[in-house]
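Human: If only I could read backbone structure tokens as easily as an amino acid sequence. Take your time, and here it is.
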Amino acid sequence: MSEFLVDADTLANARFGTSQLTETVSALKLLRAPVEPWYRPWKDHHHAAYRAQLAAEPVWAAIVDSAFGTSWAADFFTVPPLEPDLALEEELGPLLALSDDHIRSDLSVVRTPLPSILLETRGLAAAAAGLLRWIWSATIEPDWPRRLRVLQADIVSRTSRLSEQGWSGVLRGLGPDVRWLGEGRIQVNRWDYPPTDVRGRDLMFIAAHTQRVNVSWRLPDRFALAYPVTGIFAPTATPDEPLVQLLGRNRARILVEAASPVSTTLLVATTGLSLATISDHLRVLTDSGLLERRRSGRSVLYWQSDTGRRVVGRPASG
């Protein structure tokens, strides 16, 4: 298994954030490989255009074929950002500065020999950046405001857990193979690589649309774990029309969303409604006995009461 060796300074300065480059590379991985069932609708929607684009850009196709292995991706695709929450163009700067030899060297770690088109083509960094710009603009940017709300809600949820459960609790939820081992050791995956010394260095946790935890670095002093955000492609809760007529569409949607405990922040992310609007609807639903509420750390969680479950058409608990 792979481990990060950390110290108190590493954890004290560790940050959560988003990365448009990480989100874009994650989307590229989903388009080129088998996906879990909950990613299938998104992939089905974009896959034909993706295949057509690669057919029209043979250098892009060769880069994609050469850049991803079973447990490794070409380093130029996975460099963590200097700061969280940067725009894609800001993150592409270091990639665009790389020479063709550097790009080929990174690709050769994953695949050898490289196809002749990559040995003969000049401007490989610009080609790789063009591929990422297309993935971003065609498959992510139109939905980015909603995606960003969900990513930010996930970050808020995980950072609030820090005060309640410590780093052990936070890490436990990042992925099935991520856990706190004690004595300054974090297991990051089950691949058989030597431990990575992150003591006294920067560590970032990047919420992303990805199927599994991915490790990246910008040597000598910046490391990152990109982890799967929860709920980014969760089906939209759709209330039945009689419930909409009874409560109004937004309140009915919120009541259905609260089948399991939800926070105000998560409801803002999943519905797109303002915080003030969500808060008003939650107050009415709670006062009417359809929701129950409880404080959990810094968050307040809401869920359907027995009355609320009956109104929605679900069996009451107990």
User: Anything to note?
Assistant: The longest helix spans residues 144-172. The domain at 241-312 is CATH 1.10.10.10 (Arc Repressor Mutant, subunit A).
